[in-house]
TrEMBL record:
<keyword id="KW-0067">ATP-binding</keyword>
<dbReference type="Pfam" id="PF08245">
    <property type="entry name" value="Mur_ligase_M"/>
</dbReference>
<dbReference type="GO" id="GO:0008764">
    <property type="term" value="F:UDP-N-acetylmuramoylalanine-D-glutamate ligase activity"/>
</dbReference>
<dbReference type="InterPro" id="IPR036615">
    <property type="entry name" value="Mur_ligase_C_dom_sf"/>
</dbReference>
<dbReference type="InterPro" id="IPR018109">
    <property type="entry name" value="Folylpolyglutamate_synth_CS"/>
</dbReference>
<keyword id="KW-0961">Cell wall biogenesis/degradation</keyword>
<keyword id="KW-0573">Peptidoglycan synthesis</keyword>
<comment type="function">
    <text>Cell wall formation. Catalyzes the addition of glutamate to the nucleotide precursor UDP-N-acetylmuramoyl-L-alanine (UMA).</text>
</comment>
<protein>
    <recommendedName>
        <fullName>UDP-N-acetylmuramoylalanine--D-glutamate ligase</fullName>
        <ecNumber>6.3.2.9</ecNumber>
    </recommendedName>
</protein>
<feature type="binding site">
    <location>
        <begin position="138"/>
        <end position="144"/>
    </location>
    <ligand>
        <name>ATP</name>
    </ligand>
</feature>
<keyword id="KW-0131">Cell cycle</keyword>
<keyword id="KW-0132">Cell division</keyword>
<keyword id="KW-0133">Cell shape</keyword>
<keyword id="KW-0436">Ligase</keyword>
<feature type="domain" description="Mur ligase central">
    <location>
        <begin position="136"/>
        <end position="274"/>
    </location>
</feature>
<keyword id="KW-0547">Nucleotide-binding</keyword>
<comment type="pathway">
    <text>Cell wall biogenesis; peptidoglycan biosynthesis.</text>
</comment>
Length: 511
């Protein structure tokens, strides 16, 4: 009976009462799931190895139970509970013992995004329909494009909510009593993998979707590059209107070609070149749309100019690509070019995304700590050729050889940090031996960036660019990529305050 009942649960107004649901993980996402399900009357057991005090305190208040402890094996509390449904937070990989147990036991396995889709009719628009969904994924640029898209939609008069992997659970957006016209949903590969486990009743039918780019990342979680690619490709499944893809990234085009979409959905390409019909691109310094107009074979609509983007700090090539992707999504929902142009004039990037933190004495200091993988770091290096490159951290099993051999060759020098320094140094020795390499082996997190800044300042010797684009995760030495960026900025400010021109001297001998 459980499978038959689950097939009926496709509305907020369905009968969820008494449904036994095990929720794995008690972070922001896990709590949003538990809170939603208890409101619906389900019987909820939350299992987590740890929990923030506030969430642990609130669970019994909302009517859910909490089981804290190791999940290295299936706990007796879970098997005794006999769940009809397991909803996992995105941090649980396919190889996790509890996930395998659920699959082997033929228990339905959902993520929070599928639950939100099924409940999307809680708050509806004036015509009685739920909000449209726009899906955004990619190895890099997801959050910026999500923010851009929501900003452009709002400029066009639509009530838009950025949510998902950006930090606001989709369930919170679905339950917001104010209601929205569009949910702009950033999806990680982990969330997409869980959508791949859906039955037909749980499949999403987005208005539009984009995969911005594809490069190796999260390979340990997925098990292989192919599995990672397959998860990302799910973003296009059942798209109704616009499948937006990156013409400069062949993998995204193939995803669209292979996708099962609703009849009538169009493929919309974008890149930095001259656009063909059904594309967005750049012509003589103008960002233009040749996709969403009647006479697209012979004309184009101007969206903005590279000069305007330069004034707003948005002219780095990979940011321009994000702007084109977001514009395509917004245009698919009827936002006019004039609204896009106006909105972009006031848009600013988040911290730690190619952020200029200081320009002093001829040196520009750039914080792109969010560049946590090779693809993102390559974009930064292309935006700032000849920079002193601060690189390294936890490589997550990814090889930097291709990055170093390509974009890394343009660096003036490399300052290497992090637990995987040896692999980075070796990559330079093999693939870019002409680039001077300086290794920072400071074990104290509080001293790492001070040492980095001293070395980098000595290398540029009063003129040049210093770029923090680590191509690696931060958790080996810092609490987050934001912490890494903050500490870099603090070290730069301290160096400036204590009289940088006198302190900058010859750098130590390179490797």
């Amino acid at each position: 009976m459980s499978a038959e009942r689950l097939r009926t649960l496709t509305s907020w107004h369905a009968d969820w009462k008494g449904l036994r649901v095990a929720v794995l993980g008690l972070s922001t996402t896990g709590f949003s799931v538990a809170d939603t399900l208890t409101e619906l009357g389900a019987d909820v057991l939350v299992l987590s190895e740890s929990a923030e005090e506030e969430y642990a305190r609130l669970l019994p208040v909302i009517g859910a139970r909490l089981e804290l402890g190791s999940l290295a094996d299936v706990p007796a509390a879970l098997s005794d509970f006999g769940p009809e449904l397991v909803i996992a937070s995105p941090g649980f990989p396919p190889t996790h013992p509890v996930i395998r147990w659920a699959q082997e036991s033929e228990i339905a396995l959902w993520g929070d995004v599928e639950l939100a889709w099924r409940l999307r009719d809680k708050v509806v628009r004036a015509d009685g329909s739920p909000a449209d969904w726009v899906l955004i994924t990619g190895t890099n640029g997801k959050t910026t494009t999500t923010q851009l898209t929501a900003t452009l939609l709002a400029a066009g008069g639509l009530r838009a909510a950025p949510c998902g992997n950006i930090g606001v659970p989709v369930l919170d957006a679905v339950r917001d009593p104010a209601g929205f016209d569009v949910l702009v949903v950033e999806l990680s590969s982990h969330q997409l993998w869980y959508l791949g486990q859906s039955d037909a009743e749980g499949e999403l039918f987005p208005h539009a979707a984009v995969c911005l780019n594809l490069a190796d990342d999260h390979l340990i979680w997925h098990g292989s590059a192919q599995a990672y690619r397959d998860a990302k490709a799910l973003v296009y499944r059942n798209t109704r209107v616009a499948c937006v893809y990156n013409k400069a990234d062949e993998a995204t085009r193939r995803m669209v070609e292979d996708a099962e979409v609703v009849d009538g959905a169009r493929a919309i390409g974008f890149d930095l070149g001259i656009p063909g019909p059904s594309d967005l691109g750049v012509v003589e310094g103008l960002l233009v749309d040749r996709a969403f107009l009647d006479d697209r074979s012979r004309s184009a609509l101007e969206l903005t100019t590279l000069a305007d983007l330069e004034r707003a700090g948005l002219a780095a090539p990979h940011i321009v690509q994000n702007i084109l992707a977001a514009s395509a999504l917004a245009r698919s929902l009827g936002v006019e070019p004039e609204a896009i142009h106006a909105a972009l004039q006031g848009f600013r990037l988040d911290a730690h995304r190619i952020q200029i933190i200081a320009q002093h004495g001829g040196i520009a200091w750039i914080d792109d700590s969010k560049a946590t993988n090779p693809h993102a770091a390559a974009s930064s290096l292309r935006a700032y050729p000849g920079a002193v490159w601060i690189v390294g951290g936890d490589l997550k099993g990814v090889d930097l050889s291709d990055l170093v051999a390509d974009a890394g060759r343009t660096a003036r020098a490399a300052v290497v940090i992090g637990v995987d320094r040896a692999a980075v140094v070796t990559a330079f020795q093999r693939h870019a031996p002409a680039v001077p390499v300086f290794e920072v082996d400071a074990g104290d997190t509080g001293q790492v960036m001070n040492r980095v800044v001293e070395i980098a300042a000595g290398i540029v010797d009063g003129e040049g660019t210093v770029l923090l684009a680590p191509a690696a995760a931060s958790f080996d030495q810092f609490s987050s990529y934001a912490d890494r960026g903050h500490r870099f900025a603090e070290a730069v400010r301290e160096w400036i305050d204590r009289g940088s021109d006198d302190d900058a001297g010859s750098p130590p001998a390179g490797i």
